Amino acid sequence: MHKSGYSLLALIAVVIAGFALAACGGGSDSSSGETTIPDDVIGNASTETGECSADPKSGGTLVYARRQQSQDLNPLVASGGNGDIFVINQIFDQLVTSDPNGGFEITPAVAESWDVSDDGKTYTFQIRKGLKFSNGQPVTAEDVKFSLDRFADPKQNLILAIAAVGYKKSTVIDPQTVRVELSEPIAAFLYNISIYPASIVPKDLVEKEGDSFWEKPVGSGPFMVKNFTRGSSLTFEKNPNYWEAGKPYLDSVRFNFAEEDNSRMLDLKSGEAQMVDGVPYSQIQTVLDDDQLQLQVVEVPQFLGLWLNHQRPQMADEKVRQAMQYSLNKDEINSAIYGGVGTIPNSVLPKLKFDADSSQVEPYPFDVDRANELMSESKYPDGFEITLTYPAGFEDYKQLGLYLQQAWEKIGIKLKLKEIDQAAVADAFYAGDYDMTFPYAQFTSDVTVPDEYANLLNDPNSGIDGFFSWWHNDAIWKKVKEFTTTISDDQRADQWPVIQQEMLDTSPVVNVLDLPFVNAHQKGVCGTKVDALGSDQLQDTWLAG
């Protein structure tokens, strides 16, 4: 039934070979299988050897070729996904932040300390003494209250107002102290205010300048915007008032937007850029073989999240979605397209704290016969035609699209492929103008706990319709609500695997693969740390040469 005469691996190999020839100018084919990643390139410690084992030096400019463009510098808009978020994180601080060294913990930022009431509904924050914005004016409790109120206002917070769940009000106690009251205990509250929409901004300037403020915003982060040419580049200069003594080390950083994979890698090899993110998986071995380059592989909550639009009746059919899962040989996808650096997911979400391992919640096995059985039991036993949209310029998405097209043809799903630029993919996603889509070039979680995505997909009052999937399940939502308002980590560790299993069973969306961040830089670029969410800690980066 629904047989195909094509070899999936052979088809992918032809595509990869074309990319390899374009990038390298000749005959080396890096698509023959999995890449062995040496231990010394894994994690943040990978840039603390050789020249980088010395004390940091100040000065210099870093040119960083970036996979995603920046669209908007307003933390409450951020329509460009990580292209915006990772820029915003250089300009602004939040009250607290994800551990810059990685891991699940929250660390101080604008707030140097805080207390929590016994009932978990009141937080009192002490603002860091002497903290200033980049223009030299002090960061005050009024700025913090103003920023948190913006964060909690769905009329202003256009993308993640749901992260302010439970926020009731803030009160200024004195110029250095803010009290935050919640309507109910929110287990992930500190995580929620550690992300970009909760950035602390100067109240007086935002009110005075309005929309023009965001063209060259003022924050308390390590860098300031010098020039921003949309579609081309963004240049930062160091914030002379940054609160970490002696940092940032760099005088300036230029983000060159280089969405096309081969262009970005050629810039690195030629010296036009000293650092790139999103190393194509087929070129990992090429980077490892180059003695002038350093690969860096960091585990973050990044996934190949395939979003399904439940306004399309085919995607609303649970048996169809389950059949799609069973028909994917994820081991083959990982080996053929991603060099074996990915891991097989046992969740529809990225890998997060409280996830059960695969012995407790098992991944979908590869079983085409079972997939065909499910299709025959669905409302579409004769199959259907549907369109997959994905961002242009990335060889892995092109290869993956071809793989999915061939795999799903075997169960009667005729997949049309539509490759468009990143901004258009995101706009269509938010408008619900898609059948199925990979909405972002990099799809990550904003926090290391499941609460954000659990709420995004399940909360019927979020205003974003199951995070633009138009899916809802009352029974799962009831469990999510209990999970997100339970303060005890021990209890949450028991609750989450049940939700994880139920969401995997119904598969409102599909996690094709969990992936690390794979970045590269020239040797002599040091301190290239990212936090547990993949955001560059450029205040720690320095040049040895």
Give the gist of this structure:
With 545 residues, the chain is of the alpha+beta class. Helix content is 29%, strand content 20%. Mean pLDDT is 91; it is low at 1-6 and 14-32.
Q: What number is the mean pLDDT? A: 91
Q: What's the count of strands?
A: 18
First-last Cα distance:
62 Å
Secondary structural class: alpha+beta
List the SSEs and their pairings.
Elements lengths: L7 H17 L36 E6 L15 H10 L4 E3 L7 E3 L2 E6 L5 E6 L13 H11 L15 E8 L2 E6 L6 H4 L10 H7 L13 E7 L3 E6 L13 E6 L3 H10 L4 E2 L7 H6 L3 E16 L9 H9 L3 H9 L29 H10 L6 E8 L3 H15 L3 E8 L1 H10 L4 E2 L13 H8 L6 H4 L5 H11 L4 H18 L3 E13 L2 E2 L15 E2 L2
Parallel strand pairs: 1-10, 1-11, 13-14, 13-15
Antiparallel strand pairs: 2-3, 4-5, 5-7, 6-7, 8-9, 9-10, 11-16, 12-15, 12-16, 17-18
Helix pairs in contact: 1-11, 8-10, 13-15, 15-16
